[in-house]
Write a sequence for this structure.
């Protein structure tokens, strides 16, 4: 109460109930031991400000007031804690466990178009068509902590890929979900990609990162040690300090898992950022050359820093995030038409605002007295559902599905 105080490190022993004040960090007595007067003292535990530790985005520690640093294992723990409280999402990939499939509802689909979306947010880049099939799998034996995965199967082998061939599983991250990595600046943050993978052919495989205009690339490799066995992989990639990286609703970063490719997209310069559009390391396997080969992947996560944290799971949030790019909404229109050619319109409202003005189409439901159906005035907020009558009287188109696609 008279203003005497002392902050330090000591040891309390239950035998004799002694508190040894062995190290003084700061005190009212010029930072020396205080000779307290007789009477009751208040003793409590705290974190002295002079021993506080700050950890930067690289999970390397700096200390305030002391040269002591965190051990590497402590850095990993601190990096994990930081990433857990970082808002809003650790994983910048959406639907990394392939649980949402509004495109095919788990049905096997042939990759008959380059860049075809096969499940929400994931597409297949394929220079040659009808070579691959991709079902979402949600049943049967699963790897630990996984509820679904994507299987890509070679149904027509390409023995010798041409120079311009490429066969990739890819997600394009929107710029607004990647801008804070600060790529293209000296402050670019490193990132870590982690995933579960199983492949019918063991060996070396490639994963690549590219920017939106295909002018910067980072190609690295990982090893499938045993065929047909689930394995966990984690790869840390340094931040890209040069090049143009979109920060808007365009492509911020592309993540590609390579199943094969030609010389145009192949490089021997791995584990470094390079100029150009590259996908594949020259040492990696051409899975596309193996008929009936399968490539299974799940729990794909891309996050800031050099520490791979547990896969971020929230099915409901994932479903909502997917609808920024692809959603279906019921479009029911009904009314009385005064005659042939009469038009009745009903607004359609998107459940969430979409990334960009989507393409829109209608899947027919129940119709009566209809000459034509159209959807127009499409925006990020919704559209207009219009029906044109064939005659006077009750006119309707109900239980129709409006499909809005604003994928990257």
């Amino acid at each position: 109460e008279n203003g005497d105080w002392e902050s330090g490190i000591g040891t309390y022993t239950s035998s004799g109930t002694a508190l040894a004040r062995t190290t003084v960090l700061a005190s009212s007595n010029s930072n020396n031991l205080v000779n307290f007067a007789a009477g009751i003292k208040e003793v409590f535990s705290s974190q002295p400000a002079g021993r506080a530790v700050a950890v930067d985005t690289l999970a390397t520690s700096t200390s305030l007031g002391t040269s002591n640093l965190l051990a590497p294992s402590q850095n990993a723990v601190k990096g994990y804690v930081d990433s857990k409280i970082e808002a809003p999402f650790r994983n910048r990939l959406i639907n990394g466990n392939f649980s949402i499939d509004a495109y095919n509802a788990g049905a096997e689909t042939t990759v008959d178009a380059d860049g075809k979306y096969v499940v929400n947010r994931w597409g297949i880049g394929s220079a040659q068509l009808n070579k691959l099939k991709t079902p979402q799998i949600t049943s049967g034996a699963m790897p630990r902590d996984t509820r679904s995965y994507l299987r890509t199967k070679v149904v027509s082998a390409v023995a010798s890929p041409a120079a311009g061939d490429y066969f990739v599983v890819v997600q394009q991250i929107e710029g607004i979900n990647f801008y804070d990595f600060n790529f293209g600046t000296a402050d670019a943050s490193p990132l870590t990609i982690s995933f579960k993978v199983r492949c019918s052919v063991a060996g070396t495989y490639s994963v690549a990162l590219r920017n939106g205009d295909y002018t910067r690339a980072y190609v690295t490799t990982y090893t499938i040690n045993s065929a047909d066995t689930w394995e966990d992989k984690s790869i840390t990639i340094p931040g890209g300090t040069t090049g143009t990286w979109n920060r808007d609703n365009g492509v911020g970063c592309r993540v590609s898992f390579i199943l094969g490719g030609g010389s145009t997209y192949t490089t021997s310069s791995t584990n470094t950022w390079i100029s150009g559009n590259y996908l594949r390391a020259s040492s990696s396997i051409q899975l596309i050359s193996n008929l009936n080969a399968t490539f299974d992947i799940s729990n794909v996560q891309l996050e800031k820093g050099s520490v791979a944290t547990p896969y971020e799971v929230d099915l409901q949030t994932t479903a909502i995030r997917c609808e920024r790019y692809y959603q279906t909404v019921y479009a029911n229109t009904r009314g009385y038409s005064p005659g042939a050619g009469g038009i009745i319109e009903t607004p359609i409202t998107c459940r969430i605002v979409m990334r960009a003005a989507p393409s829109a189409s209608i899947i027919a439901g129940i119709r009566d007295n209809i000459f034509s159906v159209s959807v127009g005035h499409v925006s990020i907020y919704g559209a207009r559902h219009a029906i044109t009558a064939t005659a006077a009287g009750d006119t309707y188109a109900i239980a129709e599905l409006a499909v809005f696609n604003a994928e990257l």
